[in-house]
Write a structure and sequence with these properties.
binds zinc ion; Metallo-beta-lactamase, Chain A; alpha/beta; six-stranded mixed β-sheet; single chain; about 40% helix; five-stranded mixed β-sheet; 8 helices
Length: about 300
C-alpha cells in the first residue's frame, strides 16, 4: 500500500515537470544592447541547458565587461565566441572575454580571420585614440573555423556566408531549431546603414543577401545595430531591405552629401546614427564621390 501511494505521488510530481520540459525551446537567445560608445552593437548569447555561444564581442572594454556579466549571470559555460565580420565594433574588446572565459574558443569564418589580421594594424591606429582607456591594449583575432557548423549541446548553429553586408565578407549564424538568425551587420534596425565601403553594385549585392536571409523565414533576428527598444524580430530585415531599395534613388536625386543626408533623414525619420552622425555623413560623402570608398 505504501509502495503504491509512493508510486502515485511520484507520478503526480513527475507529470507536470515532463510537460514543462516539452514546452521549453531547446535553445534560447539573450541579447545585450550595448551603449552608444559601442555603436549600439547587439551582443547575443545563445544558451542551451548548460553551455552557451556568444555572437560578436563589443567595441569598448566597458561593454565587454557588461557582456561578461551577462554570460556569468546566465550560469552557462561559454564554449565559443563567434565573430561575424571584420569591423572593430564586433570584436575589438574580446580581450576582456578571453580573460574572463579562457576555455571559450574564439572563432570566425577563415575569410573573416584573414580580413582581421590584414586590417588590425590600421584599425588600431584609426580607433585607439578615440577609444582611449575604453579601448583594448592588444586587440587580437579569432581562430579560423574548420567547418561551417558550431555545435551547442548537440544542436547545430550554421555559419552562413561570407556574403555582402555592410562589409564585403559578412557572415551570419543561423539556428534552425529555433529559427533564430544572428546576422551581424547584414541587418540593421532603425540605425543608418554603413555604406561607406559600397558602390551601387555592392548596395544591390547587399539587397540580394537580405533576400536570401529573409527566405529562411526567421522568428528571431538580432540586428547587428538596432535603435534601443526595438524587438529582435524580422522587422530588421524589412528595415534593411527598405533602406537598400531607397538608397540608389536618393543618391541619384541629390546634388551633394548634405542634400542626400536630408533626403535619407526625411525617408527614415525615426532612424538614428552613432558617433555624431559618423555613419550617414561618411556613407553619403562616399556615395556622392566627395571622399574615396573606405577600405576596412
Ligand atoms: Zn557594426
Amino acid at each position: 500500500m505504501i509502495r503504491w501511494l509512493l508510486a502515485l505521488a511520484l507520478a503526480f510530481t513527475a507529470a507536470p515537470a515532463l510537460a514543462e520540459h516539452h514546452e521549453e525551446p531547446p535553445l534560447t537567445v539573450e541579447v545585450l544592447r550595448t551603449s552608444a560608445g559601442s555603436l549600439h552593437v547587439n551582443s547575443a548569447l545563445i544558451m542551451g541547458e548548460r553551455d552557451a555561444v556568444l555572437v560578436d564581442p563589443p567595441f569598448t572594454l566597458a561593454d565587454a565587461h557588461r557582456v561578461a556579466a551577462m554570460v556569468l549571470d546566465s550560469g552557462r559555460n561559454l564554449t565559443h565566441i563567434f565573430v561575424t565580420h571584420d569591423h572593430p565594433d564586433h570584436f575589438f574588446a574580446m580581450q576582456v572575454l578571453e580573460d574572463a572565459f579562457p576555455d571559450a574558443e574564439i572563432v570566425a569564418h577563415p575569410t573573416v580571420v584573414e580580413d582581421i589580421w590584414r586590417s588590425l594594424p590600421f584599425k588600431v591606429v584609426r580607433w585607439s585614440p578615440m577609444l582611449g582607456d575604453n579601448g583594448p591594449a592588444h586587440p587580437s583575432a579569432p581562430h579560423a573555423l574548420t567547418s561551417d557548423t558550431i555545435m551547442l549541446e548537440g544542436h547545430e548553429l550554421q555559419v552562413l556566408g561570407p556574403m555582402q553586408g555592410d562589409h564585403v565578407h559578412s557572415t551570419a549564424l543561423w539556428v534552425p531549431e529555433i529559427r533564430a538568425l544572428l546576422p551581424g551587420d547584414l541587418v540593421f534596425n532603425e540605425v543608418h546603414l554603413w555604406l561607406g565601403e559600397h558602390d551601387l553594385d555592392r548596395v544591390a549585392d547587399w539587397a540580394e543577401s537580405i533576400e536570401t536571409l529573409s527566405a529562411l523565414d526567421p522568428d528571431i533576428v538580432v540586428a547587428g545595430h538596432a535603435r534601443p527598444g526595438l524587438p529582435d524580430d524580422a522587422s530588421g530585415l524589412a528595415f534593411t531591405a527598405a533602406y537598400l531599395e531607397a538608397w540608389p534613388m536618393l543618391v541619384n536625386s541629390a546634388l551633394d552629401s548634405d542634400e542626400l543626408q536630408e533626403l535619407v533623414r526625411a525617408a527614415f525619420p525615426t532612424t538614428i546614427d552613432v558617433l555624431d552622425d559618423f555613419i550617414l555623413v561618411n556613407s553619403t560623402e562616399v556615395a556622392l564621390g566627395e571622399q574615396p570608398i573606405w577600405t576596412e
